[in-house]
Amino acid sequence: MSINQTNSATRAHDATRHLPNFCNLGVMLQLLLLVSILCLAAGVLRAQTLSDVWPQLLTISIYVQPPLMLSLLASCALRRLFVRMSARAELVLFLVVEALIAWLTFWLIGEYKNVFSGDLSAVAAWQFITLFIFTTACVLIYFNLRARELSPALAEARLQALQSRIRPHFLFNSINAVLSLIRHEPKRAERMLEDMAELFRVLMADNRRLTPLSDEIALCRRYLEIEQIRLGDRLKVEWNLQHQAIDPLVPPLMLQPLIENAVYHGIEPMMSINNEAGVLKIDVSTKGKVLNIILSNPYQIDLAPTHSGGNKMAIKNIRERLQLHFDAEASLNARVIASRYEVEISLPIINEQTV
Question: How many beta carbons lie within 10 A of that of residue 103, not counting itself?
Answer without folding.
Answer: 15
